[in-house]
Every structure is written in C-alpha cells, then in structure tokens.
Design brief:
This protein is mainly alpha-helical. It has one domain: Hypothetical protein af1432, CATH 1.10.3210. 62% of the residues lie in helices and 4% in strands. It has ten helices and two strands; from the N terminus they run αββααααααααα. A two-stranded antiparallel ribbon has the order 1-2.
C-alpha cells in the first residue's frame, strides 16, 4: 500500500497548483478544482449528448488529464511556445509513467494517450469540457478585468474567435451552452467594463 499512499501524496499537490483563471470569490482556481468542474459538467451534459459515451471513461479522463501538473506544473496558454509545450509534454509523459508504475496500472498510460490523441468521442468531449471550464470561469469571475491583462487581451481574442467555438461543434449541447455563456459574458463586459465584445473579433 505504500505505493498507493505515495501516489495520493503526489496527487494532493494538484490542489496547490493554481491556474491563472479566477473563481467567483476572486481566488486563483486550483487545477484540482478545474478537473472537478469538468466532471460536474460531464454529469450535467450526459442526458443531452447526441452521441453516447462511456461516462466512466469520461470521468477517468477528467481526473487524469491534468494530473501530471501535480509535478510538471501548469503553464498558462499564452506562455506556451512550441518549445515550452514540447518540453511540458515530455515531462508529463514521464510523470504518467511514474503514476502507472506506482499503481501498477498500465491503463493510466492508455488514458493519457487517449486524451492527447483525441481520437475517441470520450476524449473529444473531455477536451471540450477542459476549454468550457475556462468559459465558465470568465462567466463567474468576481472581476473580469484580470482576463484582459494577459498578452494584449489574448484570452478575450481567443474566447470570441471562430476557432474557439469550433471546439464544441461536434455536440449541439456544447454549442448551445457556449453560446449562452458567451452572451452573458458579453453582457457583463458591456455593463461592468463598458467594453463591446465585438472589438475582440477579427474582421
């Protein structure tokens, strides 16, 4: 059981690893909280999905997808150059192998590979939930000003881009939920910061 306890001690660090997204009380969101939110969304969307999925697999992917960051750490998207991203991926694979060794469970490696390749419906859904959680953070943040503070409105330009919306186009419920979130975020930007969201959209 020592290996299991060692794994749990490492996994706990995900609660200490913070993203740049903020919660409704103004605190930085932990990576563990992010993963939990994704699992909640998966459960909420299940009755509305047009394509059936293995929900147990989906929840496992939600739990695992960022677990290597307990060791490799989170790197904000606007800082991920191709070189940094490649290095991060290599480090994460090493961590996943370590987890697999500790738990004597090769399925952990298979799950991580499945998520990275995005070839299954389950992995596509989990990646969409990964992105959608950031959208929920934009909607619920106590103060939206922080979002525009990174790399000349990098995250607003991404949020309102066509490519961003395409992340959800394989499931109607995801498109509908994202559309409602985008509408409410746009209203908050206008009301609270006097910003017209159209300024972030490329012509």
């Amino acid at each position: 059981m020592k290996n299991v306890v060692d794994f749990l001690k490492i996994a706990e660090k995900l609660e200490c690893e913070c993203r740049i997204t903020r919660t409704s009380d103004g605190a930085f969101q932990s990576v563990a909280s992010h993963s939990w939110n994704m699992a909640m969304m998966a459960m909420a969307f299940k009755p509305y999905l047009q394509t059936p999925v293995n929900m147990e697999r989906v929840l496992e992917l939600c739990l695992l997808h960022d677990l290597p960051e307990a060791v490799a750490h989170d790197i904000p998207l606007h800082l991920q150059t191709p070189e940094i991203k490649q290095k991060k991926n290599q480090e994460e694979k090493i961590v996943v192998d370590r987890f697999s060794e500790l738990l004597k469970d090769s399925d952990i490696c298979d799950l991580f590979e499945e998520y990275e390749e995005r070839k299954t419906q389950e992995s596509k859904l989990v990646k969409a939930l990964d992105i959608l959680d950031t959208c929920v953070a934009h909607l619920c943040a106590k103060d939206l000003k922080y979002v525009g503070e990174y790399a000349n409105n990098f995250y607003w330009k991404l949020f309102f881009s066509d490519d961003f919306e395409k992340s959800f186009d394989f499931e109607p419920v995801l498109i509908q939920v994202f559309g409602e979130i985008k509408k409410q975020v746009s209203e908050r930007l206008k009301t609270e910061l006097n910003i017209d969201s159209k300024c972030f959209i490329k012509e």
